[in-house]
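Input set for joint prediction.
Command: fold jointly, output tokens.
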Amino acid sequence: MTEVHIIGAGETKFGELWDRSLRELAVEAGLRAIEDAGIYSRDIGILYGSNTLAGSLNWQNDIGSLLADFSGIASAGIPAIRVESSTSSGASAIREAYLAIRSGEYDVAMVGGVEKMTDIYGSEILDVVSTTLDREWESFFGGTAAAMAAITARKYMHDFNVEKEALAAFSVNDHANASKNPNAHYRSKITLETAMKSTKVAEPLNIMDCSPVSDGGAALILASDKFAKSVGKEGVVIKSSAISQDYLALHSRDSLYTINSTVRAGRTAFEKAGIKKSDISFMELHNSYSIYGLLEIEDLGFAEKGKASDFVMDDISLTSPLPINPSGGLKAKGNPMGATGVGQAVEAYLQMKGKAKERQIKEPKYGLIHSISGTGSTSVVHIIGGE
Amino acid sequence: MTEVHIIGAGETKFGELWDRSLRELAVEAGLRAIEDAGIYSRDIGILYGSNTLAGSLNWQNDIGSLLADFSGIASAGIPAIRVESSTSSGASAIREAYLAIRSGEYDVAMVGGVEKMTDIYGSEILDVVSTTLDREWESFFGGTAAAMAAITARKYMHDFNVEKEALAAFSVNDHANASKNPNAHYRSKITLETAMKSTKVAEPLNIMDCSPVSDGGAALILASDKFAKSVGKEGVVIKSSAISQDYLALHSRDSLYTINSTVRAGRTAFEKAGIKKSDISFMELHNSYSIYGLLEIEDLGFAEKGKASDFVMDDISLTSPLPINPSGGLKAKGNPMGATGVGQAVEAYLQMKGKAKERQIKEPKYGLIHSISGTGSTSVVHIIGGE
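tokens >
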């Protein structure tokens, strides 16, 4: 069975892009990925569009067709469908593209993730983002994504005697790395003090614990052994791909602060890759809220439950033994939902290819990319690198 | 590489189901499919949720997680993602499940399609359904799905001198078949005269040319050779699966009445299956509007362009050489969008297994299932049957 290679990647700047539309963002990212791969658009076998909210927010469904149309591949008959799994849509779309190539049906698959979140009046975005929770049991009663994260954070901090500094430190690291990423939503460094004193959103979470409302697009070109060889393209191998699941509603889970889907997907990803945790050179984690960054470090097996704070407070910077979120992460690079997971993979690809410039990690061996949907119902883990 | 077998199928009644929620409909269909397959839910490797409108209409995204949660498979870690390609979401989800099994990653995949369209005030459904068109160039200017179909119908009838009777006859056949389907939305037979005289929606289309606003759920269990053999289950083989694409906006297409995506997907499906058109015993076509039924007969190669009216006016009933829409079709069985394509496959499976009771077609050899998204941007064709 063929390996799957990332042979091209591209993204737009993430941010409040008032003058750019959903389709423009998608096309810009897509064309950059095609150019980076050095292929023709007609080489693409299938397009997976990743988008979370456009049906609720931009009044546009059939995002696959929209992307195929405006990137100029529709008339060639190149099929396009949308994959949605809330905030892990991008990672799920990468996985579908991976399976499509592994099935032997396609040699080249494109993944295009996009979200246009600022086309809405003020606080209405809260309602729209709440469509990723359980509508009947959570959001209908006023539950928001931030409120759910806050419940988890409070219980976690209480049970393990964790101070708020550890959460804030995760965001501080994100901002430090984003200051070196020209595509990041926020390029300003922040201090622990700024983060701690920022506006409260849902106690104990401040605004500096919460990823922003971003617009953006990101795209990848995946290819089979055969195609990668035929175009003489040395890409980066997707060493393993894993996905797992837990209940949608937080109250149904075994634990408020162990993300079972992450535990399972992480375990499977390492088993499939046949590598050790110490082989991982960097991780892109899904800190839609800072608390999730800490939980994921634990649930992926890099710290004991309740101990991620030591890990984070110690050192997770670009020069540490295990840098986290070199891109700037969801907090500072930004979180345009459908594009987020694809953007994480764009960063991991750049790092592995030694193209991450100012934020380049020294000689990375393997990179780990992790996304969760909402509060953790779906988790997707990809490990890239190696042979 | 393994063949993919349909080993179980189930669906709810389609209709205006005021007392049933989105999740209830999905679970009911899913449990029926699992029961029909005679498997345990823990045997499922992955769940593909098909849904088109819930983000816009029910304020619920992450339909994959919702379905996994409420069907009781989430806690086992069985991953679930949503596939959306407008009105062809169900067919696209079947194709993703097919690829997932072909990739060797999964032995059993479940496809669950659901839509709850009646949870909205009156005519607002028009706006929601219009999210499947090009928002910026079609629906923003007032274009509706019916209006687009009417433009196509008018041009087609003019250019080929086709009378309205042929369109009406397609719907009459649907209602005749649906009268024998206990799960159909409308079980009343109608006459050509009734259809011709029904309320105008968008000239030349009457209400009897338009599929209704339906609630419903449908589910399939697909399995690899290995799994099907291990449980001693003789399913129905998916002989071929094909998907193709055209522009999203109708005005960008080469022709108003040739659906290029259908031409291409149909051709590929027959090539892959290695069978002749005359081997097809029945077809489930996507008549969201009656005109599309006629165009699809032509674009799949069963009549010359402009000549489907002869084909339809001749005989497409259950006892004809090539029965169309034995289920009752989108017009009379109903069109709960995310469930529609899955429901078409449920019918095809029942027909192949000889379980379609009153509407059973005599000794079917192969069945063809066809879905389009919106006005035809994506087309998906599956041929089932044979070895």
